[in-house]
Amino acid sequence: xxxxxxxxxxxxxxxxxxxxxxxxxxxxxxxxxxxxxxxxxxxxxxxxxxxxxxxxxxxxxxxxxxxxxxxxxxxxxxxxxxxxxxxxxxxxxxxxxxxxxxxxxxxxxxxxxxxxxxxxxxxxxxxxxxxxxxxxxxxxxxxxxxxxxxxxxxxxxxxxxxxxxxxxxxxxxxxxxxxxxxxxxxxxxxxxxxxxxxxxxxxxxxxxxxxxxxxxxxxxxxxxxxxxxxxxxxxxxxxxxxxxxxxxxxxxxxxxxxxxxxxxxxxxxxxxxxxxxxxxxxxxxxxxxxxxxxxxxxxxxxxxxxxxxxxxxxxxxxxxxxxxxxxxxxxxxxxxxxxxxxxxxxxxxxxxxxxxxxxxxxxxxxxxxxxxxxxxxxxxxxxxxxxxxxxxxxxxxxxxxxxxxxxxxxxxxxxxxxxxxxxxxxxxxxxxxxxxxxxxxxxxxxxxxxxxxxxxxxxxxxxxxxxxxxxxxxxxxxxxxxxxxxxxxxxxxxxxxxxxxxxxxxxxxxxxxxxxxxxxxxxxxxxxxxxxxxxxxxxxxxxxxxxxxxxxxxxxxxxxxxxxxxxxxxxxxxxxxxxxxxxxxxxxxxxxxxxxxxxxxxxxxxxxxxxxxxxxxxxxxxxxxxxxxxxxxxxxxxxxxxxxxxxxxxxxxxxxxxxx
Amino acid sequence: xxxxxxxxxxxxxxxxxxxxxxxxxxxxxxxxxxxxxxxxxxxxxxxxxxxxxxxxxxxxxxxxxxxxxxxxxxxxxxxxxxxxxxxxxxxxxxxxxxxxxxxxxxxxxxxxxxxxxxxxxxxxxxxxxxxxxxxxxxxxxxxxxxxxxxxxxxxxxxxxxxxxxxxxxxxxxxxxxxxxxxxxxxxxxxxxxxxxxxxxxxxxxxxxxxxxxxxxxxxxxxxxxxxxxxxxxxxxxxxxxxxxxxxxxxxxxxxxxxxxxxxxxxxxxxxxxxxxxxxxxxxxxxxxxxxxxxxxxxxxxxxxxxxxxxxxxxxxxxxxxxxxxxxxxxxxxxxxxxxxxxxxxxxxxxxxxxxxxxxxxxxxxxxxxxxxxxxxxxxxxxxxxxxxxxxxxxxxxxxxxxxxxxxxxxxxxxxxxxxxxxxxxxxxxxxxxxxxxxxxxxxxxxxxxxxxxxxxxxxxxxxxxxxxxxxxxxxxxxxxxxxxxxxxxxxxxxxxxxxxxxxxxxxxxxxxxxxxxxxxxxxxxxxxxxxxxxxxxxxxxxxxxxxxxxxxxxxxxxxxxxxxxxxxxxxxxxxxxxxxxxxxxxxxxxxxxxxxxxxxxxxxxxxxxxxxxxxxxxxxxxxxxxxxxxxxxxxxxxxxxx
Lengths: 660, 642
Fold this sequence. Notes:
The complex is a heterodimer.
Chain A: H1 7-30, H2 38-60, E1 68-78, E2 81-89, H3 91-114, H4 121-140, H5 144-162, H6 169-199, H7 206-215, H8 220-237, H9 246-249, H10 255-265, H11 268-276, H12 278-281, H13 285-306, H14 312-332, H15 339-370, H16 388-402, H17 408-425, H18 431-460, H19 479-502, H20 505-511, H21 514-527, H22 538-559, H23 572-579, H24 584-628, H25 636-659
Antiparallel strand pairs in A: 1-2
Chain B: H1 4-28, H2 33-68, E1 100-103, E2 115-117, H3 127-147, H4 152-171, H5 175-184, H6 186-196, H7 202-230, H8 266-303, H9 307-352, H10 361-368, H11 371-396, H12 398-425, H13 430-449, H14 454-485, H15 496-499, H16 501-514, H17 521-534, H18 541-569, H19 589-607, H20 610-638
């Protein structure tokens, strides 16, 4: 089945290469060649990336639907639940595959320098290989169970990588938190999958499932419930409100892992899931609205939290949460406007975000590498002379994140804002709310520019300060680590403008995905609207430029000379709220974790009580015996008395009954 | 086609070889524990080989049978054990045996006397459990390798006797034989806990285990005799001799009642149940038709002028009504009886599983018994309960399983999933944590089973094997720590990844299998069980609630497992004081075999479960057919049209 000459075969080989890389790395780790364990990972990622590029080049031209599926045998099948090893190649999965493997290659190269000399070198690359493999499995899946396998696989690998420094209690706690919080969302996802399975005529494959749903639409309540349950999974995995709390903690792992989690392999899974299930979401305006509201509030809240963080990686982590919120905003508008616009906007942002977020995290890793693993921005500053390459690339990444025109982030953020505006202007149900969401998104874009450049100025500008942990030999990173930075910076600069605004290639290619086509057909059927032309909107672009520059200007005016922290009077209390992360962790601890633990303790007590009851019952025979034992006292006179009394009672009864 | 006759002998060998090994180990124990454990490990390995030798052709035959089934074909109305020793037909088509143990009572001299039979055989439900038993016994012997030094001969002897009894119960198709083996397991288990237990309360725990499970199974005994004696027969009260249905013909129509033997074979008993019900349905239809006719005649006669005819018609109508009432009463009294028999029959099994709130014997037993014995308990002994449910309770009381099963035992299962998870979280002892986790997983098994759909029952049958593998290996891995440090208190351990990396690796694999990670075995069966809960026939309000409870298990199991892993394996290294001078080592080679082999099987079963599922298909369909018929009857009674 795995014919390398067919696009699907080649991309499946590409998807499975990281797995073999992982096995080989692990094997090398067991031998004395452990220091070469990075090679299988890098080589397998790179060749997977090249293969997916070849596939992409092969199918990029042309028109009409593009979907190649294959079933490679049965996984498990009983009566109505039939699950095959079923895979799907369409523009959506292909773009994800190419992005993931490409970014992962660069991160692996960076890691080879960053992790050199670490005792768990082989373990690191082996887990990384598994991580990428799980993500590839997820995007290539053609049914929910393969998708779930990849989904849980990335969860597991992130758990193991976040807890990579296993002896550190904080890393252990963060790893457990990451696994459990995402798993909480998975409960909803699994319930949603089974409800969908039931409502969708017991199909498990995406294509037949969506076809069935389109032909026999279930009740609107059911479809809304299904959508929201699926979204639960995405909320956990993609760190949205209220389950975002794991992601900022997850930077306990090595920094390149954060880059991997934030850019390529983990948090994008939720966005991908919703893009894949777009045909369902267009059927339920309510679900779309809730997705958009959650996305909007997450985007804003996370941007607010990022304002006052002292930890460079934490700022970036909250910015990821916020940017993911943007993607969900776009996805949530897909019922009100055509999914061809909304889903494409979300996926485009995912694509550009992968570049600049990986760049920013690797840049912060480079800083951390030089500063002796210190990442607190209060302890260092003014590094632009010391680390020119890191500085330049970090600046490009920040500008892209802030949405400076021409850079990649600008285009994709603009598309999202534009979609929201159009959703507001549409005649869909709840369309006025989308205006509000547009305002929130615009405000968040301004905040984004501000906090990004705050972090940038605090790190690279002002007086040069180096923490003593760096032991006096702070230095620019080795070339092995700079190459990925430069490549990613080039991507952050140009990837956006090349693939979409100039050529519209990205959008046109993605539209050929059957799930987006299905969704578009569903949208047309539901809304009875003619498709509006979707061009470049100068007003939105101007507004977002203004916001980006305003945010950057504000940051420059406050932090141009580097640290320390300057908080305008009157905003002190807001600053404290942001610094303390709104006390969300504490609130969760008080409202969820502690009660659950108390419930567990109560359960244990209750179990002892149940045991006591069982014991009490077991004493019943002994108790009865104790009652009866005195009767057998061995005195013949007593027995005789008993006999006489018994006889007397008997005779009395007989006499009275016969006399009546 | 493999040589049937030889494989029949192999079945007997697998069943009785452990007795010989027990004898040999007991004798070898006289010359020290080294000799005993050498004999025991060799014996267990040989027996595992024998079982594999049996399992391969059995699986091939069973899968072949499933493959030959045409899509629309009716399922058989009884289990179809293969390789039955004493099968009167040489090629094994009769699914019966001629080996009688004790003849019971008198019957028509022309017919074979009713007897308790030595009726053992292989089918899709039991073959994997037998294999699991042999594997876990081998693991158990390996885990006992270093820790059992006192009276080792006796220990291994009891262990192998336990194995023999468990395999016997798995293989039995005679209800009394099943019960005998089922109870025989108590004696070795009692001595293994009481004499070789690790805690101070071992004697108390042994007594508690023995009495508690015995009490439960005494109810089952009553149930079994009740079932045999009241096994539904289309007997007419006016006939002088009791009459029994013995067969159905090729078209599925009951052969007219003939005098026949009372039977102890599960197969015959279940055939009688469905035949009786079918005949009764026929009677009911006839009575209904008669009533309709009589009503029509009455209507007609009332319109006419003939007073006599009107009187006759009216009498006929009364008579028809009375007949219908009689027929309905017959069914009503049958069902009343079934109600009590169902609860009596199921009692022993749910104590053995156990379902909450009948689990209180379990924590004490599991924490006092040596880990090597606990792994047999949780891995296979608990499966006697679940197999009893599918083999005996569901086929013999299908109506009650439909009516009461989900509401009562499904509820207890759902409650158990959540409740036991919370209890597990609060434990300090690794063994107790694993014990409660086991209760939680088995709650899901029972809940899914009582959906009575093929997904649910296949999931349950598969989960028996999967849970046996993971939970059994979990206890084996806990035994690793118990052997080295004589304690399983979680708070005394920390950072074991750094100290025992190989051990930590296998522990992670088993823990992840236990939380249902895709790619490992439990995921498959959990998905099947969950899907059954969301299928429409169970997905009424209650069913969806149960489904949500079951799905919450996905999170809850991760919650306590990951918390345990964080405490014990992450963080700075922290170890209890060493009991001996020798520095404890990471996995030794025999431990790699003991833990690595099951872990590998977890992976294999997670990726290629389909052969196992296929081999179970025919037998699952038998049960589903029985319960589907019952569901139809129950639904028909509910709907007012009847």
